[in-house]
């Protein structure tokens, strides 16, 4: 059993006072078969009332409205998660696993995770990549997923901030570089291309001293859940060529990033904005004190230096979207 303490800091800073911020967040870790969220708090400055609900995928969502003028919005999400060990994933399944998978699909409600979505779409570039990587129904579903996880790890160069939060799938495929969001969308589209249900997972990755992860340690992370016969939903991380295991902490699942951004909102006003994000994940063998409040450091620059996003261009509009990319 492993325990994780997670702090997720987000700061939006504006060049001019804005009149209102409306925000929705998905930072509250899920509780499911082997993961249990022991505590969660969301602090917002300027102070406001925060409301919660669960969406149709079972994700925990917080939302709030700040109607007064302000030049900065700070969101601090803190959680404690317990992770239990999961069985080892084999290298292959039985020869008739494709038939078993089709039977599962016919008997269940998985169509949302089979159809194209906002970012995981079948473009000409995606279909050409499927041809290059020989993504067709062969061997068995699990063997194909293992191979695709590794091939995408080798195909893409991991380059932080090489794409934008709303970059189409072709941008990463053509340049052969991107961040975890791009790796995940590409794998989703390729799996759905061969009729394997797959969903986007937004969350956090604990980086141990022994790990050699490529993904940025002070940012949120994304990977793929794949539906497999006899195993159910299994996580695969093409950014790091890993099976999502005890170090992967799930916050939300959806068809793609458009369903589960950590922050999604708008502000009213005409101003330049800067987004700063910092994520800190600590591990322990014993459960941490749930009433311990982590202090917010005075020097933000130390925490957010590598996660800093460039300022958005100044535009004279009423509503501007606020979202953070997963690196």
Instruction: Kindly identify the CATH topology of the largest domain.
Output: C8orf32 fold
Q: How many helices? A: 6
Write the element-wise H/E pattern from the N-terminal end onward: EEEEEEHHHEHEHEEEEEEEHE
Strand content: 35-45%
Average pLDDT, all residues: 90
Radius of gyration (CA) equals 20 Å
CATH class of the largest domain: Alpha Beta
The geometry reads as globular
**Counted beta strands:** 16
Kindly report how far apart the N and C termini lie: 27 Å
| Assigned CATH architecture of the largest domain | Roll
Largest sheet: 5 strands, antiparallel
- What proportion of the residues is helical, as a percent range? 10-25%
Estimate nothing, just give the exact number of structural domains: 2
Tell me about this structure.
This protein has 327 residues and is α+β, with helices and mostly antiparallel strands. It has two domains: 2-83 and 260-323, Immunoglobulin-like (Sandwich); 97-259, C8orf32 fold, CATH 3.10.620.30. Helices cover 19% and strands 37% of the residues. It contains six helices and 16 strands. It has helices at 97-107, 124-132, 141-155, 169-175, 180-193, 300-304, and strands spanning 2-18, 20-28, 35-45, 51-54, 60-66, 70-83, 157-158, 177-178, 198-205, 221-228, 232-237, 242-243, 248-254, 263-268, 273-284, 319-323. A five-stranded antiparallel sheet has the order 4-5-2-14-16, with no helix packed on it. A hairpin with a 4-residue loop joins strand 11 (232-237) and strand 12. Helix 3 packs antiparallel against helix 5 (180-193). The chain is globular, with a radius of gyration of 20 Å. The two termini are 27 Å apart.
């Amino acid at each position: 059993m492993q325990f994780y303490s997670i702090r997720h800091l987000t700061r939006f800073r504006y060049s001019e006072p804005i009149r209102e911020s409306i925000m929705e967040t998905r930072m509250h870790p899920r509780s499911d078969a082997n993961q249990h969220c022991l505590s969660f708090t969301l602090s917002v400055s300027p102070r406001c009332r925060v409301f919660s609900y669960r969406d149709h995928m079972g994700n925990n969502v917080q939302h709030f409205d700040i109607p007064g003028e302000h030049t900065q919005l700070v969101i601090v999400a803190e959680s404690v998660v317990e992770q239990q060990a999961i069985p080892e994933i084999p290298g292959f399944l039985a020869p008739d696993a494709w038939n078993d998978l089709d039977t599962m699909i016919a008997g269940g409600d998985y169509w949302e995770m089979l159809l194209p979505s906002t970012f995981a779409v079948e473009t000409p570039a995606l279909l050409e990549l499927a041809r290059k990587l020989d993504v067709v129904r062969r061997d068995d579903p699990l063997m194909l997923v293992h191979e695709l996880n590794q091939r995408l790890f080798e195909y893409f160069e991991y380059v932080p901030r090489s794409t934008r939060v709303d970059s189409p799938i072709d941008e990463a495929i053509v340049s052969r570089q991107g961040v975890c969001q791009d790796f995940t969308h590409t794998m989703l589209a390729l799996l759905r291309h061969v009729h394997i249900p797959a969903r986007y997972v937004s969350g956090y990755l604990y980086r141990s001293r022994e790990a050699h992860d490529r993904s940025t340690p002070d940012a949120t992370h994304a990977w793929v859940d794949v539906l497999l016969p006899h195993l159910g939903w299994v996580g695969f991380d093409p950014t790091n060529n890993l099976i999502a295991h005890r170090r992967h902490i799930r916050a939300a699942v959806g068809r793609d990033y458009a369903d589960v951004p950590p922050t999604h909102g708008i502000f009213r006003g005409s101003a330049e904005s800067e987004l700063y994000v910092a994520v800190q994940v600590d591990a322990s063998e014993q459960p941490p004190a749930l009433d311990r409040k982590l202090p917010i450091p005075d020097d933000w620059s130390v925490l957010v230096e590598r996660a800093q996003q460039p300022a958005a261009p100044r535009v004279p509009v009423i509503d501007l979207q606020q979202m953070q990319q997963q690196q």
